[in-house]
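Hi support team,

I submitted a single chain yesterday and got back a structure, but I'm not sure I'm reading the token output correctly. Could someone confirm the output below corresponds to the sequence I sent? I've pasted both exactly as they appear in my results page.

Thanks,
R.
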Amino acid sequence: MSIIQRSDNVFVINESPAIVDSRVIVELKLAADASPLKRARLCLHRADTDLVHEMLIVLSQKAFIRPHRHLNKTESFLLLEGETSVLFFDGEGEIVREERLGKDPNRPFIYRIYDPMYHTQLVWSEYLVFYECTQGPFLREATQFPPWAPTEGCAEATAYLNRLRDRCTQLLPASSSNCRNS
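Hi R., thanks for writing in. Yes, this is the structure output for that exact sequence:
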């Protein structure tokens, strides 16, 4: 398999057909551990200009995904391994919904966002492995970050991530419900 490293944590398969097996996931986990942002992405599309963007993404439990929303795009997420909470926020940064995803038969394992909603993920397992699909081309300005969420990699990001975790730890293990808004 021909995989090219595009940046610190982004890889691209450069052959057709693009075939992914468990060895690739092991390598992505190692890359996520080595990355300052604690994540790695394998792009199944070849270029930012492609009209469909399909990715295999690995997040370590230490990863912080800055809350964001996508303008004029949908996003589909299919959980392959691990457990996560997907948090949805209002415009002021209050959590309005949490969905706990996992491989447990009582939990959802897929979501699709149609509207530009601020969202992020909390990783509860050692690693989270998921498939994501969205429309291209990739335009940096089509992703908006709210002023109330810290930038990834800054000192405030860890404290913010811990506050989000604390607000969501009161949930019953097999339920999907709202976080405490305290």
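A quick pointer for reading it: Residues 3-168 form a domain with the Jelly Rolls fold (CATH 2.60.120.10). Let us know if anything else looks off.

Best,
Support desk
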